[in-house]
Design a protein that fits this description.
The protein is built from twelve helices and no strands. It is mostly helical and 281 residues long.
């Protein structure tokens, strides 16, 4: 990965850890993420003024837009459930590590991943080992299910958004413009999928706090999209993002008072180390 891509990923990781800690501390429910998606729309929608159009495949394009919004909504639902039942030290590394394996495997099945050397697969195997270490006997089973849902959502929108960026570029958009337009489209689609959850919510509104989280979430993912435009293979970005894992685990221990379990520290270190190998490739 280029130095620019690495820098973008590191900045994104810092923002990602920040908003996840806020979510865990506030014990936010699904409606909170729906409000965050709605609150960010006035900020991102003006980017649609730069939109060059859908190009020659409008049906596929809009299906992918709906798909990325649904994937993001499932990610939010999974994350809310995971943080309700478990803590950052368990849920965060597992949710972040799962896509490192899933993205290249799914991409391989779609014949969309190239340039994966033996070292890359070894690093991804190390990530899988780190995830396995997190599977504590007697651990929070319900939290595990929600966490895997969050990881599946991340995998799906990572692959879909890489395709959408290519389609926007094929329609004549520069990569910076394509990134901004995609953020607007994804945020809009996610807000629509989450709207029923917001309408039916019984939890307190927390609109101001949700708006702040929306800014952090969108900023973090915008940096990831920008990094994707700098690489040949989206799997590298998906893996290198996991540098945030030890930051999240340590922040959970220091700021939230979570127990410093050796198993979790070893697992997060293994995942992050493997991610660093991929990032510096």
């Amino acid at each position: 990965m280029s130095q620019v891509a690495v820098l973008l990923v590191l900045l994104s990781a810092a923002l990602h850890v920040t908003w996840n800690l806020r979510s865990r501390r506030l014990r936010t429910g699904p409606a909170f993420y729906g409000r965050a998606s709605l609150a960010i729309l006035p900020v991102v929608l003006p980017a649609l003024l730069l939109w060059p159009g859908t190009g020659p495949q409008p049906v596929l394009f809009w299906a992918l837009v709906a798909g990325t919004g649904l994937s993001q909504a499932l990610y939010y639902l999974g994350l809310a459930g995971a943080y309700r039942l478990g803590d950052v030290g368990f849920a965060y590394p597992l949710a972040r590590g799962f896509p490192v394996i899933a993205v290249p495997l799914v991409g391989l099945g779609l014949a969309s991943q190239e340039n994966l050397a033996g070292t890359d697969w070894a690093a991804m195997a190390a990530v899988a080992g780190g995830c396995a270490l997190l599977m504590e006997r007697g651990g929070p089973a319900g939290c595990l299910v929600w966490t895997l849902l969050a990881g599946a959502g991340t995998t799906a929108y990572t692959l879909i958004d890489a395709t959408l960026l290519q389609l926007l570029a094929g329609a004549g958009a520069s990569m910076p413009v394509a990134t901004l337009v995609l953020l607007a489209l994804q945020s809009s689609a996610t807000a629509l999928w989450m709207l029923p959850v917001v309408i039916r919510a019984s939890e307190p509104s927390q609109w101001r706090s949700a708006a702040l989280s929306g800014l952090l979430i969108t900023g973090a993912y915008g940096l990831v999209l920008a990094a994707i435009t700098q690489v040949d293979n989206v799997a590298f970005v998906s893996a290198s993002r996991q540098i945030s894992i030890p930051l999240g685990v340590l922040a959970g221990i220091v700021l939230l008072g979570e127990p410093p379990k050796l198993r979790r520290l070893l697992a997060s270190g293994l995942i992050a180390g493997a991610a660093a190998v991929l990032a510096l490739r």
